[in-house]
C-alpha cells in the first residue's frame, strides 16, 4: 500500500513538472526539419507550379462551333459586356469554343451562367484548367485562339 501511495505521489509531482518544462521552452515559432528528399520534392513542386500555373476549376462555355470568326465575335461581345471575367477562345480540332471566367467551384460559375444564359442560350458550365489568380490571367488581345495544353 505504501508503494502505491508513493508511486501516486511521484506521478502527481512529476507530471506537472514535465508540463511546465515543455511550456517554459515554448516559443511562437515552429522549427521544421525536413528530410533532403522532402526538400527536393518541394522544390520540384515549386518549379512545376511556376511552369504550369493552371489548376482544376470551372468555366462557362458560351459557344462551340466551327467558325473562328463567330467565336472571336462572341468573345469580344462577352469581354465588352462582362469586363470582370476573362474570355478565352479555345480551339480543339475541329471546334472553336468560347469559355468565360476562372472559377474554383461550380457554384461560383453558376452566377455567370445565369447572366449569360439569356444572351447565349446554349451556355453551360464545363470543367477546365483555370488561372488561380484571374486578375493576372492573360487576355487574348491579338485575336489568336488559345491552344489547350495537353496533360
Keywords summarizing the entry:
alpha+beta; 4 strands; Alpha-Beta Plaits; single chain; 151 residues
Task: Outline the structure in words.
The structure is a single chain. This protein is 42% helix and 22% strand. The protein has a domain at 55-136: Sporulation related repeat (Alpha-Beta Plaits). The relative contact order is 0.16. A 4-stranded antiparallel beta sheet has the order 2-3-1-4, with helices on one face. The protein is elongated, with a radius of gyration of 28 Å. It has 151 residues and is α+β, with helices and mostly antiparallel strands. The chain is built from 4 helices and 4 strands; from the N terminus they run ααβαββαβ. It has helices spanning 2-24, 36-51, 68-81, 106-116; strands spanning 55-65, 87-92, 95-103, 124-130.
